[in-house]
């Protein structure tokens, strides 16, 4: 989508500090980190939110979780623990209309979150 900030990052129109990229996903550091480790993983296919997951695009979600597992191990935070967040819709805190997963680690993450 032409006006989607994440699509612009995927296309290289907006720079990002990439951690991982393949033909299906992009992972990059958050520009406003909420923890010592804070990165996002986004599908390259424009999926607005978790409400749009269906039989045709559901395999990307499994792939995203495999990539998260790979990255947290490379960043040496897997054993200590991390949080995966997906906000869906306005009340869920979603501010960008492109499905994405926040991964936070590197400190004790309290519950409940905000």
TrEMBL record:
Histidine triad motif (motif): residue ranges: 98-102
InterPro entries, per database record: Histidine_triad_CS, Histidine_triad_HIT, HIT-like, HIT-like_sf
Active site: residue positions: 100
PANTHER family with a match to the protein in the record: HISTIDINE TRIAD HIT PROTEIN
Domain spans labelled HIT: 5-114
The protein's name in its UniProt record: Histidine triad (HIT) family protein
PROSITE patterns in UniProt: HIT_1 (PS00892), HIT_2 (PS51084)
One Pfam family in the UniProt entry: HIT
GO molecular function annotation: catalytic activity
